[in-house]
# Entry
Amino acid sequence: MDLTRRGFLKLTAGTAVGAGALGFDTRPAEAAVPALKVSAARVSKNVCVYCSVSCGVLVYSQTDGSMNAKARAIHVEGNPDDPVNRGTLCPKGASIIDQINNPMRVTKPMHRKAGSSEYEETTWDFALDRIAKLIKETRDRGFQATDDKGQTVNRVVNMATVIGSQTGNEEGYLGVKLNRALGLVPLETPARI
Amino acid sequence: MSYLTSGSTTGLAIRRMSATKEPVLDIKDQEQLGILVDISSCTGCKACEVACIQWHDLNPPIATEEELRENGFSYQSAPDLAANLFMLMKYQEAETDRGWTWFITKRQCMHCDDPGCLTACPSPGAIVQYANGVVDFDQSKCIGCGMCRTGCPFDIPRYDANDHPFKCNFCLDRVGNGLVPACAKACPTNALHFGTRADMVELGHKVVAGLKDRGFPNAALYDSAGVGGAGYVYALPHGDKVEHYGDLPKDPAISSLVHLWKGPLKWIGGAAILGSIAAMFMHLVTAGPKTVEAHGKEE
# Structure
């Protein structure tokens, strides 16, 4: 296109007049409501991992449930139906999405062999058998049937247990039962450590 | 009685737009929204800040140890607001008649009734005030002049690398869809109350009266009267020491320079331009066109 200076000026002026006549209406109007980023997300109820308060959280994940759509958490909010927190969250709970999407997150049982400095992936079968065996060995070494005064105590003095913070009544009951049956005295949750 | 409304039926009604003078005709009647920050109930846990960051998909820089040291080992997570940090909890320690006290403040856009940013903005439609009182930026219409921060009495807008301003938008997507703003939902001590502004002012007066009964004689409601009242209302336990609450100005008002610039100076400037054009025309009429004498070149 051969454009002279005069022609270019004419074209520019023409475009400006045309744009003014055709539109660019600056009159205030109604604006569309911005779309909610979680409107198409799947909501699942869960419990915050951090402390023993066990706040209920709603995890919004971006998937329609189809086989090829890999669910990924996009937002976390407090669960309003949960009587513990009634929709609120503390800063740790509010940032829990970074825990869910953390690339460093451990999702499989890991085993560091004696003398090794590296963790290796292992299976749940191996891990549970190994833990059971070590608990038995340690308990046998540290079990006291009577104390110095000869009173029956039946306790294990060389072990302690940390029970998950987010366990409910029933799991907590079972955990205490198991550990007391072994004779453990100190029971803790990660929340206070 | 006041009603909370969402953006149903016809969308969000607009009350005002920057650099636009058309009167607003709207069928919808929406109450101005508000959040009451009851600082006496706030523990400074920063849940609001985290919820804000998460809802808006922000990734603000984490303060380094040096930055924290410069701030006097404050509990703040960042030294200042940023383009990707819409709200920040500010912490300051100061002496009161009850001994040393923490002055905790939630700092973000106040959503003024008479927004200084909107008054100062020269780009049509770049700053919008909706009928529900929310002031929002439309970055696509922004020309990056930086006047919004000059006009803001609270010094809130922060600019990204393209000089486009960003700030709290009162979770317009959430309130437009009938949800509570992310910060107000997360608050675990119920220090943030969300509702219509009228209700929040009423509740704020009740909180202040309660504080006065409980031995805070200087408790006061911070209601930004200089900007016509704001969407954010603060119940301050130590109302006589406003200056310690983050960067809250004692009496917020739009700078008179902005009014001068947008008012008389605009007309004077326009008149000067038109005057010079008229003078040029008169010169053409009276003195005639300038003739160039041909010299050194033969036709």
User: Anything to note?
Assistant: Confidence is low (pLDDT under 50) at residues 23-28 of chain A.
